[in-house]
Specification:
Blueprint (H helix, E strand, L loop, with lengths): L1 H11 L12 H28 L3 H11 L5 H26 L4 H19 L5 H15 L3 H11 L5 H30 L3 H20 L12 H5 L13 H10 L1 H31 L4 H29 L5 H20 L5 H29 L6 H29 L1 E4 L2 E4 L2 H18 L10
Antiparallel strand pairs: 1-2
Helix pairs in contact: 2-7, 2-8, 2-9, 3-8, 3-12, 4-6, 4-7, 4-16, 5-6, 5-9, 7-8, 7-16, 8-9, 8-13, 8-15, 11-16, 12-13, 12-15, 12-16, 12-17, 13-15, 14-15, 14-17, 15-16
Length: 452
């Protein structure tokens, strides 16, 4: 047993530094750029597939409810367990990832997610469904932290916001593909296929990620991006400190806690729309499943513009500071959710406009609050710890949202002529209120100093 445990640790452990390529800097730079490009594409598309095997459950919720297999409260419990295990996993695994070979760590998580998803399509007892979905949540946490650690290893601080924003579009790409493709598959082949098809796609993606990703530059015999570009390396100031001590400074930083709480409220609203949006649109506004999925797909692609542009906007126009654009996007985020849930159902254009605005601002805010602002103010060798702290808060918020939303929706259910009718008023107040609180909390870290 000890030998097995040691073998597992050695498999995931970051590789040792290799002798640097010093005889031909042009060759080193070309190799660095090639590996940087390959890694960036791998983590962006790879993390998109994590979402394919996460939001597929949002698509199968209504069919499961209509078939009487699960009710809204049970589905809320499953969602709560998923986000709770994801929150704990994102905290612990992001700390661990600071010491790991990302090339192996991240693809392994996606591989396990794909296998469990395929098993869930078999059709299990409710208790086993909760257990398996909780396991999916745990292995989902192998995605975000390692992605940001890889970015910090291969990209300088001057370009971090731009690269981070583009990478963050992976959320929207994965979600958009899920709403559109999985909905069509479920419509034609049933809810089981809503687990099988995403599972197979993620299995293939995990293999490709392992092939095309790389460990940190030094482990590849390459200089750091700072050395390559002649810039000051911020890790030099902390080279005499252990990773553990740097991670502890992250835990003690009050600004990280405030950002975590702000992100938690933002995630309440985010996952309310992503997890219950199809149910809300079909039950409250009379959409078909395909029509509701199309609307949410459009929202996700609007989010791609938000995530891609938010880092560039803050880097180019606000000197790498995120507070001003965060406030602007936060205000429009709350207003767009209010228009979506309280707009008259007979005016369909309100739903489309509000979801496009919501998608853009949500993509931007989740990018800022969900990690970038914390990474900016924390030591770069403790990036995983920063992501872990924010992730813990964020997904505890998402976890509580699932249970609270499911409970409020189920309490508003009445039977009319043998059909379930849902009242979403209490849930919608909860969703809009969380967006407002998130915006207010973010103001409390307005003047926190950014570390290069």
């Amino acid at each position: 047993m000890r030998e097995l445990f040691s073998a597992i640790l050695n498999f995931f452990k970051a590789g040792p530094d290799k002798p640097l390529i010093t005889d031909n800097m042009e060759k080193a730079k070309a190799l660095f750029n090639s590996k940087q490009r390959s890694l960036f594409i791998s983590i962006t598309l790879g993390y998109a597939f994590f979402y394919v095997c996460r939001l597929n459950f949002s698509v199968v919720k209504k069919p499961l409810m209509d078939a009487g297999i699960l009710d809204a409260n049970q589905i809320g419990t499953m969602g709560m367990v998923f986000f709770f295990t994801y929150a704990i996993g994102k905290f612990t695994n992001s700390f661990i990832a600071d010491r790991c070979n990302i090339k192996r760590f991240m693809p392994f998580g996606l591989f396990m997610v794909s296998v469990i998803s395929i098993f869930m399509g078999v059709g299990l007892h409710y208790v086993l469904m909760v257990l398996f979905w909780g396991m999916v949540g745990w292995f989902q946490s192998f995605g975000a932290g390692p992605s940001i650690i890889a970015l910090n290893q291969w990209v300088t601080g001057k370009k971090r916001g731009t690269y981070y924003g583009v990478w963050f579009a992976s959320h929207n790409i994965g979600a958009g593909l899920t709403y559109l493709i999985t909905s069509v598959v479920v419509l034609h082949y049933g809810w089981r296929a809503g687990f099988w098809m995403p599972g197979m796609l993620c299995l293939i993606a995990s293999i490709l990620m392992f092939k095309f990703m790389s460990d940190r530059p030094k482990a590849c015999g390459l200089p750091t991006p700072y050395e390559l570009n002649g810039e000051k390396d911020p890790t030099i100031e902390t080279k005499d400190k252990s990773v553990g001590s740097l991670q502890w400074t992250v835990i003690k930083n009050p600004a990280v806690w405030i950002l975590g709480l702000s992100s938690a409220c933002c995630y309440v609203t985010r996952y309310a729309i992503e997890s219950w949006g199809i149910v809300f649109l079909t039950a409250e506004k009379g959409y078909t499943m395909l029509g509701a999925s199309s609307l949410l797909t459009t929202m996700q692609f609007a989010g791609i513009f938000g995530t891609c542009l938010c880092g560039l906007i803050s880097d180019k126009f606000f000197k790498h500071k995120r507070n001003v654009p965060c406030l602007i996007f936060g205000i429009f985020y709350a207003l767009s959710v209010a228009a979506f849930v309280w707009g008259p159902k007979e005016y369909d254009w309100i739903n489309w406009v509000s979801m496009c605005v919501y998608g853009f601002t949500m993509g931007s805010l989740v990018c800022y609050l969900g990690g970038l602002m914390a990474v900016d103010i924390c030591p770069k060798r403790a990036t995983g710890a920063a992501m872990g702290m924010i992730g813990l808060f964020s997904y505890i918020g998402a976890s509580l949202q699932e249970k609270v939303s499911g409970y409020l929706i189920n309490c508003g259910k009445t039977m009319v002529n043998g059909h379930a009718v849902y009242d979403f008023h209490a849930a919608s107040v909860f969703w809009v209120g969380a967006a407002v609180v998130s915006c207010v909390l973010a103001l409390l870290v307005w003047n926190v100093k950014v570390k290069e």
